[in-house]
Amino acid sequence: MSTIYLIASGDLRVSANRKCESEQLKMEQSLIAAIERLGGTVKRAHGYREEVGHSFIDSQKYGMEVFRGIPPKAPLIVAEAVWQYSHHVLHGLQFHKGPILTIANWSGTWPGLVGMLNLNGSMAKAGIKYSTLWSEDFESDPAFQKKLRRWMKGQKVSHDTSHVQRLKSVKIPSEAKRIGAGFANRLRNDKAIMGVFDEGCMGMFNAIIPDALLNQTGVFKERLSQSALYYAMTQISDPEARAVFDWYKAHGVNFHFGSGEENDLTERQVLEQCRMYIAALRIADDFGCHTIGIQYQQGLKDLSPASDLVEGTLNNVERPPVKSSDAQRELYAGEALPHFNEVDECAALDGLVTYQLWRELGFDPENTLHDLRWGRHYTGPGKDVDGNEAEIDAYVWVFEISGGAPPKHFVGGWAGTHSYRQPPMYFRLGGGTCAGISKCGHIVWSRVFVKGEKLRMDIGLAEAIGLPDAETQDRLNQTTPVWPIMHAVLKGVTRDQMMGRHLANHIQVAYAPSAKEARKALFAKAAAMAELGLKVSICGEV
């Protein structure tokens, strides 16, 4: 193989790129050593730039400049140890004619695995051929090195997908099929509106569903502007914002306040989030939205505190009441307003269907997306899926997300909810998170995605378990300690099977009352999505 070119897509935010630079370079050093040991030669296609203080590709504009210097047929590696914006490099990958390999280090320090999965999902949607690999240690992992050697020889790199079954090959219980088909027909007949506050968050090409595909399900986009949301925030009175804040305190939310705006969470920041919460509900009501998504990461981040506390609150059935502007009606009374974090429209369709179908099934309808962030094997004491003390011996994933997780999912509910300041490297103006440790229980997980110009969904079962406080805290410290976390054990899906198949940074989760009910919900949801025109696959043991 000729000289391998290496690129690193990064964040749009300078502060994040500077903070993550050392971890990225450490990862690249180890990767390059592994490649050279196999006889390869690596050339980094872009270097450190004094004017920005890092060496990442940090914009689509700069990405195009970098790709002009890469031979079109050269072997190319996209190495990721951080969160990255896929549109920074997608244009070049779309036209590249040489073999492409995405690689991430198996580390929770920064969301490199999450970034790689987003890029993979974006390339799959765009029809770009690529291979993908990951490892905890590039220089001493024989399985990784074997597959890397294959790629360097120009051979195909594949992964085990024996855990995947097409829905049509699975026998669906008749009751679940009836429930799912009936639900799908009602959704198509009644229709629903997806409120999108500015599309394309953080370059997530994979998170945008083309209208022609989405509309066939009976769901239609209402394209909203975050500038309108910010204006609506300025129209919320101080007493209205204070009433929401007082509700939080009365329900036991633990706010971790400090005195400095730059690095601490302050009451002022939370009151601004309370304004955003009220404004979002009023705009959603004005447009008849059944679900909404706030992009936040671009634009609004320079005007207001983060939306995370707002998102988690919206996803919870029990939440601060909000009246219409004329004070005549309570908005969405007795219901959540499902919110899809980072305007991930695939999660929006999934979350909307889950919320409404779980309502029909009589289950708690709260659901959320999480990042498929990281994981490791755990052996030791803990709590099983039913909350009983037990010895755990399993691969336990860290599901973690900046915003959207509802307190209903947390141990202790609202009283178990903690709000910390968002990391300054991502969120200059702060704002509180909606954090907690997910309770034990039976989980249905899923992911809607676009591939081959078709809407698809993978779905499976998982167990949320409990781990000792020290292990939980270490996992938080290894990732982002101010975000909500779920300890998840996937049923019948190994780590590498999940990574080799999953075409997204996000995974949707919802609880069911028991193993039997989780299985019923899985098949009902699978049948509903199939009736809505999605290509559905069952993953793992069901």
Write the layout of secondary structure elements.
Layout: E1 4-7, H1 14-37, E2 42-44, H2 60-67, E3 76-80, H3 90-95, E4 100-105, H4 112-126, E5 131-135, H5 142-152, E6 164-166, H6 174-190, E7 192-197, H7 211-215, E8 219-224, H8 226-234, H9 238-250, E9 254-255, H10 267-287, E10 291-294, H11 308-314, H12 345-361, E11 367-383, E12 389-400, E13 418-419, E14 441-451, E15 454-464, H13 469-478, E16 485-490, H14 495-501, E17 506-512, H15 515-531, E18 535-539
Parallel strand pairs: 1-2, 1-3, 3-4, 4-5, 7-8, 7-10, 9-13, 15-18
Antiparallel strand pairs: 6-18, 11-12, 11-17, 12-16, 14-15, 14-17, 15-16
Helix pairs in contact: 6-15, 8-10, 9-10, 10-11, 12-15
Decide which structural class fits the backbone. alpha/beta
Strand content is 15-25%
CATH class of the largest domain, named Alpha Beta
Read across the widest sheet, the strand sequence of neighbours is: 11-12-16-15-14-17
CATH topology group of the largest domain? L-fucose Isomerase, Chain A, domain 2
**Any idea what the shape is?**
globular
User: Count of helices?
Assistant: 15
N-to-C CA distance = 43 Å
So, the CATH homologous superfamily of the largest domain? L-fucose Isomerase, Chain A, domain 2
Comma- or semicolon-separated keywords:
single chain; 542 residues; Rossmann fold; L-fucose Isomerase, Chain A, domain 2; 2 domains; 5-stranded parallel β-sheet; 35% helix; 21% strand; globular
